[in-house]
Amino acid sequence: MNIVYHTRLRGIINLMNLSLETPVRFVPHIGPVMADRLTNLEIFTVQDLLYHVPFRYDDFSIVSKITGVRPGETVTINVTIQTIKKYFYQNRKKDSGGKSFG
Fold first, then answer.
1. Whether the model pTM is above 0.70
2. Within its chain, how far is the Cα of 78 from the centroid?
3. Which of 13, 31, 71, 92 has its CA 20 to 30 A from that of 84?
4. Distance CA 90, CA 68 (A)
């Protein structure tokens, strides 16, 4: 009798076979392109991946009011876009800010 595992279950089984010395290319959902990108960050093994400290960390969990924002600050705000206008000039679309996108 053949047992077919659900894809998510197969990922869990593969994770159980990993060790700290396992190359990152064998980690589920990391393909060859991502493994090459990780190599540029000097991440070669699962241990390297676990101990990698990001260069910069942005905390988006603190939401500021727009009235309290000062120039030069990096903040998170909640907004609702009510309308978007498109203008057509000489066969090119432009958004309401004048930027071309087509």
1. no
2. 20
3. 71
4. 40
54 backbone φψ class: left, alpha, beta (φ>0; ψ -120 to 50):
beta
**Residue pair 67/79 in contact by the 8 Å Cβ criterion:** no
> Binning pLDDT at 50, 70 and 90, where does residue 94 land?
low
Count, residues in the chain: 102
User: Mean pLDDT over all residues of the chain?
Assistant: 78
Q: Which residues of 58-79 are buried (b: 16+ CB within 10 A; e: fewer)?
A: eeeeeeeeeeeeeeeeeeeeee
Secondary structure E strands in 1-102: 86-89, 92-95
Q: Determine the Cα–Cα distance for residues 73 and 58; give it in Å rounded to an integer.
A: 12
How far are the Cα atoms of 41, 49, 62, 63, 80 from residue 59, in angstroms, in the given order? 22, 21, 7, 10, 21
Which residues, at least 6 apart from 26, have a Cβ–Cβ distance to it below 8 Å? 14, 18
